Automatic annotation (TrEMBL):
Any one annotated GO CC term: cytoplasm
Cofactor(s) of this protein: Mg(2+)
Record-given protein name: 3-methyl-2-oxobutanoate hydroxymethyltransferase
InterPro entries with a match to the protein in the record: Pantoate_hydroxy_MeTrfase, Pyrv/PenolPyrv_kinase-like_dom, Pyrv_kinase-like_dom_sf
Location of this chain's protein in the cell: Cytoplasm
The UniProt record lists the keyword Iron-sulfur: no
Organism the protein comes from: Halalkalibacter nanhaiisediminis
UniProt similarity note: Belongs to the PanB family.
Cofactor binding note of this UniProt entry: Binds 1 Mg(2+) ion per subunit.
Function: Catalyzes the reversible reaction in which hydroxymethyl group from 5,10-methylenetetrahydrofolate is transferred onto alpha-ketoisovalerate to form ketopantoate.
UniProt-annotated catalytic positions: 181 (proton acceptor)
């Protein structure tokens, strides 16, 4: 299993870091088998698995249930679990309680918090208490209503400078890595250059220290809108639909189950049954 210092060494050796989300055991098993450096149990869970249209309705209990499943599937992979909407802004005691449950009960190795500003102090408290924290800057979906939609962040010089300052503040607060979402490639590169800790990009260009994508987007599975920065390496939805249609047809037409799918009683017992 990767460690936070192992991830730092990867950055120093310019070895790219791979991360993908997972939300259940079979997905986690495959992600681990593929050799992913880290798994993110993202609150994108709300959209790609639970059917909400944002990450806002996701609860800490949702995150814990799915992180438990992911840990059962991937026993040897570094797992990061998102702290969901408004679970780390009002009451530090509550946030500590959630981080404790996420690590002790669910088996995650780290938590991820979105944003900087007021959140920086909370992150500093968590890291000094021994909780590994990953930051998340740029497009932060939990704040999408404030940002005014899912759009590219840091497009102008002053916004980009603010992102660098935020990343430095997170670094000073002790994060072991930062996800940077949906920024120009040049800003992704500058962030990776300006920070000691690994910058894991999603829609942040090729020069970040690593990449993260959502499992369902990579597989073309589900009906979620796939943004420009995603590459689908497979297109599973039509394959799944075909399989289901075949099943429906074969059941209707009495083709399934075929003889090889059935259990058969002995002749003798059958006689006994009918007298
Ligand atoms: O929830 C999630 O999947 C994320 C990634 C997009 C980084 O936070
Ligand atoms: Na997230």
């Amino acid at each position: 299993m990767k460690t936070t210092s192992g991830l730092l060494r990867m950055k120093q050796k310019k070895e790219k870091i791979t991360m993908m989300t997972a939300y259940d055991a079979p997905a986690a098993r495959l992600v681990e088998e593929a050799g992913m450096d880290m798994i993110l149990v993202g609150d994108s869970l709300g959209m790609v698995v639970l059917g909400y249209d944002s990450t806002i309705p996701v609860t800490v209990d949702d995150m814990i249930m799915h992180t438990k499943a992911v840990r059962r599937g991937a026993k040897d992979t570094f797992i990061v679990c998102d702290l969901p909407f408004l679970s780390y802004h009002t009451d530090l005691k509550e946030t500590f309680h959630y981080a404790k449950r996420i690590m002790q009960e669910a088996g995650a190795n780290a938590v991820k918090l979105e944003g900087a500003g007021e959140v920086v102090e909370t992150i500093a408290k968590l890291t000094s208490a021994g909780v590994p924290v990953m930051g998340h800057l740029g497009l932060t979906p939990q704040s999408v209503a404030v940002l005014g939609g899912y759009r590219v962040q840091g497009r102008n010089a002053s916004e980009a400078k603010q992102l660098i300052a935020d990343a430095k503040a997170l670094e000073a607060a002790g994060v072991f890595a930062i996800v940077v979402e949906c920024v120009p490639e040049q800003v992704g590169a500058l962030l990776a250059e300006s920070c000691q800790v690994p910058i894991i990009g999603i829609g942040a260009g090729v020069d970040t220290d690593g990449q993260v994508l959502v499992y369902h987007d990579v597989l073309g599975y589900g009906d979620v809108h796939v943004p420009k920065f995603v590459k689908s390496y497979a297109h599973l939805s039509p394959i799944i639909l075909e399989a289901m249609k075949s099943y429906v047809k074969e059941v209707k037409e009495r083709e399934f189950p075929a003889p090889e799918h059935q259990f058969t009683m002995d002749e003798k017992e059958l006689k006994g049954l009918y007298g």
